[in-house]
Design a protein that fits this description.
Elements: H1 5-9, H2 12-21, H3 24-36, E1 52-54, E2 57-59, E3 65-68, H4 82-94, H5 105-117, E4 122-128, H6 131-146, E5 150-154, H7 163-168, E6 186-189, H8 195-198, H9 207-222, E7 225-230, H10 244-255, E8 258-262, E9 286-289, E10 301-306, H11 326-341, H12 344-363, E11 369-375, E12 378-383, H13 394-406, E13 409-410, E14 412-414, E15 418-421, H14 429-447
Parallel strand pairs: 3-13, 5-6, 5-7, 7-8, 8-9
Antiparallel strand pairs: 1-2, 2-3, 4-10, 9-10, 11-12, 12-15, 14-15
Helix pairs in contact: 2-13, 4-11, 5-11, 9-10, 12-14, 13-14
């Protein structure tokens, strides 16, 4: 379960922060937001306002600035990258839209670029307007290619808010209040970071690889699973154990199931590789991308599939009005070019390793820090009641969150008690160091 902004709104820590930080204009905009939007967990009502986003910074309506280490995973190249803004403006002047059944140069160029950066035989592309849609296209394609309808996915996973995406997802927030059944055939098993693995009860065999054997068991037992869909690295964040995905892929091959990797938060260099699954030495059958693909400005997502999965030509699997929108395609193509030309994948690997070393050293003696984990510039600090118990400490995490916010740093709390830090890949080492200092100071204050 992920931390909900609605719960934070009613907390003591939230109230204390709001009393110090909110001015009249902020309170009025929050009131209007609460009156205008349908309320839902993780969205409205909101905790704060925003008036400006630039580089690594967001600024509220009172002029207070925060380093944004959340960004909904869209801000790999920072907000408002000048080259991206210029490319979008130029595209608006030349070709702002392309009706479906017509193609255009920039959309084809983007598809070719995605084929070029994807490993192995991943080379057939379809664009959608969001990651949830991309995952649903991937599921449709898996059904078409295998003639099967069942899926296997993981409890606690997130694959989007659409009906099919929330069916294969495992977060209660997106499943518990839907009347009636979700997508039929959506089977779930424990993730590679289950209770036993997280709290040191794995036994003689690696717990993660035991979980991989469970994938093999369920695929064999069901016998008619079209695909396993999973996040290569949990964005909470949790790194898979060595060998896990190779074992899962082998199980898929043995049982005739496809492997779909949801790279929507982790792809395009965030973990120090262009795709997070590359850390694990595999190439899936289908990959989905989104979030950062639009450069933090425009919404676009993509499905990249193996060449031999181009089997759906006689029916529609993702018939979107903006399927080949030249404006969103230009944003995505330029974003990838910026990531490549500015060396941001390599930068994420180097800075991320340095940041985790700094945090581990600074927090080594704190009994309330259970773990510092991640890959590249997606890492987190797990807050616990004690290292011996490893029991989550959501109340500590919340106090730390608002102390950091007051000091000028915004991030997300995941799984109730994990401080999840995901800065832009463009961040300077100095700014990253300042942000880490804020986190360490906030933890020290909350756990004293």
């Amino acid at each position: 379960m992920r931390h909900t902004e609605g719960e934070a709104n009613t907390s003591t820590a939230r109230a204390d922060w709001a009393a110090q930080e909110e001015d009249g204009a902020t309170r009025e905009l929050l009131r209007r937001d609460g009156q205008a939007f349908l309320h839902q967990s993780l969205s409205s009502p909101c905790v704060a306002t925003i008036a400006k986003a630039e580089g690594i910074w967001i600024e509220d309506t009172a002029g207070r600035r925060y380093m944004d280490f959340h960004g909904n995973s869209v801000h790999h190249i920072g907000y408002g990258h000048p080259r991206l803004v210029a490319a979008i403006k130029s595209q608006l002047d030349t070709l702002p839209f392309s009706p479906r059944r017509f193609t255009n140069e920039v959309s084809v160029a983007l598809a070719e670029k995605l084929k070029a950066i994807a490993p192995g035989d991943l080379g057939r592309v379809l664009f959608t307007t969001g990651g949830s849609d991309a995952n649903e296209v991937a599921l449709r394609l898996a059904r078409a290619a295998t003639g099967r309808f069942k899926t296997l996915s993981f409890w606690d996973a997130f694959h989007g808010a659409g009906f099919g995406a929330s069916s294969v997802g495992g977060e209660a927030t997106f499943r518990s209040h839907i009347a009636g059944p979700l997508l039929p055939g959506a089977e779930h098993i424990a993730p590679f970071h289950c209770y036993r693995c997280a709290y040191g009860h794995a036994g003689p065999e690696s717990c993660g690889l035991a979980c991989a054997k469970m994938v093999d068991y369920v695929l064999g037992r069901e016998g008619d699973v079209a695909a396993v869909i999973a996040e290569p690295m949990r964005a909470v964040p949790v790194v898979p154990p060595a060998g896990y995905w190779k074992a899962v892929q082998e199980a898929c091959h043995r049982n005739g199931a496809l492997l779909i990797m949801d790279e929507i938060p982790t792809g395009l260099g965030k973990t120090g590789r262009m795709f997070a699954f590359e850390h694990d030495g595999i190439t899936p059958d289908i990959v989905t991308l989104g979030k950062a693909l639009g450069g933090g400005i425009l919404p676009i997502a993509a499905v990249i599939a193996r060449e031999d999965l181009n089997v759906a030509g006689d029916f529609a699997i993702g018939h979107y009005t903006h399927e080949k929108n030249p404006l969103t395609a230009r944003a995505a193509l330029t974003t990838i070019e910026i990531i490549e030309e500015e060396g941001l994948v390599e930068r994420a690997a180097v800075l991320g390793g340095w940041a985790m070393d700094q945090l581990r050293e600074a927090l080594a003696g704190n009994d309330h820090v259970g773990d510092v984990r991640g890959r590249g510039l997606m890492f987190g600090v797990e807050m616990v009641k004690s290292r011996e118990s490893r029991a989550p400490a959501p109340e500590l995490a919340e106090r730390i969150y608002y102390a950091a916010l007051a000091a000028g740093l915004s991030f997300k709390i995941s799984a109730g008690s994990v401080l999840t830090l995901s800065p832009p890949l463009t961040i300077s080492r100095d700014d990253l160091g300042r942000a880490l200092g804020i986190v360490v100071t906030a933890i020290a204050g909350a756990t004293a």
